[in-house]
Design brief:
The structure holds two protein chains of two kinds. By secondary structure, chain A is an alpha+beta fold. Chain A has helices at residues 9-13, 16-29, 67-75, and strands at residues 2-6, 37-41, 52-55, 58-61. Chain B folds into two domains: 4-221, PPM-type phosphatase domain (Phosphatase 2c, domain 1), CATH 3.60.40; 225-388, no CATH class. Chain B has a six-stranded antiparallel sheet. Chain B has a five-stranded antiparallel sheet with strand order 1-11-10-6-7. Chain B has a five-stranded parallel sheet with strand order 16-13-12-17-18, with helices on both faces. The two termini of chain B are 26 Å apart.
């Protein structure tokens, strides 16, 4: 699985850095480092929905407060 | 284009308690790339000294740049300077560095500490000719310039640094020379070399300078062109034109902006690899084969502008940007220290994603950034060209 976080200008203001750090933590905590490739990208053109996070081909809107919820709901079940 | 260019930097500190500096540096650049640099030190300190040195500096630089002879300049100064009522004397010492087409330097010295010339990193005792002009003893030298030559002119506040405080006999010329030899060895810019010298004087004076002290450094270096792409063009059809012009240019290439870097990647047909390493509070950089540095746009450039303004002002944030590895620091290092000729390729597209009222990014801010940055770079003595698309 590939998770891509937008680190463009707009998502940067909305806290993409915190999202990236929490995802890195969650991936390590769940020992999914070998399964998930975490990457960054510049602007995806969906700034209104930032912070934009792509899980494979699906777009999610995540904020630093909802990272854990997003991870539990959309990422973890796929490895259960 | 001549391959060499001169980088000029200077800094002054004031006599303790004075609001004006009695030393004055005047730089006149001519169209053919020649430059006349005058460092004048007015008698005494404060307002009177400031008037004397400013007049001297302006008169000499303007007249020499207009092609008049040295004799005429000196006579004009002698006839023009107001006479000090206390000392019954009109007096300002001066050093002239006339860099002719970046090939030859004419050094004219009147009563200031001798100009230090560092060649191949070591002090060079260049030939000097004694002349008497209007009853004043003036030294004149004409030297052929080489790459990495460094010329250091200073006012007597430098060798007098610390008299009666830390150094009972001041800071000896030989000691200044060896200090500068060591600093120059590190490859620092002219601006930084002058700051280092004057800051050291300030230290020797214990932070309370007993005289105005000024250092002016001219460093001969090879031209280094640098190109920056910032923003997509207003008209989509111009992408090809913009990219081909940008990538055809000699020198390093910097791409700023998310959409812009995607366009560059498409043009180069190479993948854009964004890293996730956050350094400081700047967005991460990306890698793209064929481009030397890829960064995010407005935030990064905004920080670069802050660093640029500080660099030409107090230079208090040098330690931040000169060592860090974040995007803004990397751009600053390339632009402020490495580059001599900078070409901006600025796209005027309005990013629809930025039209969100929650975001502090507007089109006018983006254009102001470019304007502010190019102004600051020009003040650093760089040649700047801005093209809009």
């Amino acid at each position: 699985m590939k998770i891509t976080v937008c680190i463009g200008s707009s998502c940067h203001i909305k806290g993409s850095r915190l999202v990236v750090e929490q995802l890195q933590y969650l991936i390590a905590e769940n020992k999914l480092g070998d399964e998930i490739e975490l990457g960054g990208t510049f602007c995806m053109g969906k700034c209104q929905q930032g912070v934009c996070v792509m899980v494979d081909d699906q777009l999610f809107s995540v904020s630093p407060e909802t990272v854990r919820e997003f991870f539990e709901k959309n990422v973890k079940p796929k490895f259960a | 284009m001549n391959e060499l260019c001169c980088e000029i930097g200077y800094k002054s500190i004031r006599h303790v308690g004075e609001q004006l500096c009695g030393d004055h540096v005047d730089v006149v650049e001519q169209e053919d790339g020649s430059a006349v640099i005058v460092l004048a030190d007015g008698l005494g300190s404060g307002v009177k000294a400031s008037i004397l040195s400013t007049l001297t500096g302006k008169i000499v630089s303007t007249m020499l740049a207009a092609g008049l002879s040295l004799e005429e300049c000196v006579e004009t100064i002698a006839a023009t300077l107001p006479v000090c009522s206390v000392r019954n004397l009109a007096y300002s010492t001066f050093t002239i560095l006339h860099i002719i087409q970046n090939r030859t330097a004419e050094i004219i010295q009147y009563d200031n500490p001798p100009v230090i010339v560092l060649r191949d990193q070591v002090n060079w005792e260049y030939p000097r000719q004694e002349m008497t002009i209007g009853g004043k003893l003036v030294y004149r030298s004409v030297i052929r310039l080489q790459e990495n030559d460094v010329l250091i002119a200073m006012s007597d506040g430098c060798p007098h640094a610390g008299i009666g405080f830390s150094n009972s006999f001041g800071w000896k010329q030989e000691e200044i020379t060896s200090f500068m030899e060591a600093m120059n060895y590190c490859g620092y810019s002219a601006k930084l070399l002058s700051s280092l010298l004057v800051d050291e004087c300030d230290k020797l004076y214990g932070g309370r300078p007993g005289d105005d002290a000024t250092a002016c450094v001219v460093r001969m270096r090879r031209r280094v062109p640098m190109n920056i792409l910032f923003g997509p063009p207003r008209n989509r059809d111009d992408v090809k034109r913009m990219m081909s012009l940008f990538f055809a240019k000699e020198g390093k290439h910097i791409v700023c902006g998310g959409t812009t870097s995607a366009l560059a990647a498409k043009w180069l047909k190479k993948p854009l690899k964004t890293s996730l390493e956050f350094v400081g509070d700047m967005p991460p950089i990306a890698r793209l084969e064929g481009v030397d540095l890829v960064t995010e746009g407005v935030f990064t450039v905004n920080r670069v502008v802050e660093y640029a303004k500080d660099f030409i002002g107090d230079n208090a944030r040098y330690d931040e940007w000169s060592r860090q590895k974040d995007a803004a620091s990397l751009i600053s290092q390339l632009l402020f220290e490495e580059a001599t000729d900078i070409s901006f390729y600025v796209g005027r597209a309005i990013n629809p994603a930025h039209q969100n009222p929650d975001l502090p990014i507007t089109f006018s801010i983006k254009m102001n950034l470019v304007q502010n940055l190019s102004d600051a770079l020009q003040k650093m003595g760089k040649r700047v060209k801005v093209s809009y698309f």
